[in-house]
Amino acid sequence: MPKPKSIKESITIMTEMVMPNDTNTLGNLMGGNLMRMMDIAGAITAQKHCNRIVVTASVDNVSFVNPIPLGNVVTLEGKITRAFTTSMEVVVNVFSENIPAGTKTKTNQAFLTFVAVDQTGRPIEVPEAIIETEEEKELYDSAQRRRELRLVLAGRLKPEEATALKSIFNL
Ligand SMILES: CC(C)(COP(=O)(O)OP(=O)(O)OC[C@H]1O[C@@H](n2cnc3c(N)ncnc32)[C@H](O)[C@@H]1OP(=O)(O)O)[C@@H](O)C(=O)NCCC(=O)NCCS
């Protein structure tokens, strides 16, 4: 069993400026490019937590609330919310910053699941995540419900076995 690790040890910050090649025809960052950046930031976070190769197992809902215009600076912050047996849930928050105007807004958030694998691609155990703050505790607790929901949607868990989900719906 790998040694537990605190969440702050793997926090990952990735920063990039939106350039013309990154944009859609309206001059805003293209959604697919942002998803790629979120996947990379999340994967680095997960790798730092487990010191292993990781693969993306799933990406939960990504909503594009505000466009990120050309010339703005995108900052992605990846943080482990919970480590299960071989998988880790990572939350990636995205901020858009207009440096000359002095404004910074949160534009997106997504939960991604990564699985640690060995050289042959077989899942391998990951360290537990040590909770140190109230915010980390809330994300840790809710991770069980998100896990059940995504495993039900992926056809990997029967709805009647989703016990944490049942409790919030009083079933
Ligand atoms: C993810 C992967 C390693 C799982 O392999 P598997 O043989 O199904 O392994 P298991 O059934 O033992 O599951 C391993 C872990 O993955 C998790 N998992 C599997 N599918 C999942 C999904 N759709 N969403 C979230 N987690 C998932 C399981 O819950 C389990 O987590 P746990 O050990 O913490 O409980 C395998 O499906 C894979 O390699 N997928 C392709 C990954 C990839 O190439 N990603 C890039 C896409 S281009």
List the helices and strands and how they pair.
Layout: E1 5-6, E2 12-17, H1 31-50, E3 53-59, E4 73-83, E5 87-98, E6 103-117, E7 129-130, H2 134-153, H3 163-168
Parallel strand pairs: 1-7
Antiparallel strand pairs: 2-4, 3-6, 4-5, 5-6
Structural description of this entry:
The protein is α+β, with helices and mostly antiparallel strands. It has a single domain, classed as Thiol Ester Dehydrase, Chain A (Roll). The chain is 27% helix and 32% strand. It is built from 3 helices and 7 strands; from the N terminus they run E-E-H-E-E-E-E-E-H-H. The strands form 2 sheets. It has a 5-stranded antiparallel beta sheet with strand order 2-4-5-6-3. A two-stranded parallel ribbon has the order 1-7. A hairpin with a 3-residue loop joins strand 4 (73-83) and strand 5. The termini are far apart. The chain binds coenzyme A. Residues 55-58, 84-87, 113, 115, 117, 121, 123, 150-151, 154, 156 line the site of coenzyme A.
CATH topology: Thiol Ester Dehydrase, Chain A
Distance between the termini: 35 Å
Could you give a short account of the major beta sheet?
5 strands, antiparallel
Distinct ligands, ions and cofactors found in the model:
coenzyme A
The strand order across the widest sheet is: 2-4-5-6-3
Number of strands: 7
CATH architecture title: Roll
Report the uncertain regions: none
User: Under the CATH scheme, which class?
Assistant: Alpha Beta
Order of helices and strands: EEHEEEEEHH
Using only CA atoms, what is the Rg? Answer: 17 Å
Structural class: alpha+beta
Mean pLDDT reading = 96
Overall number of domains: 1
Separate helix tally = 3
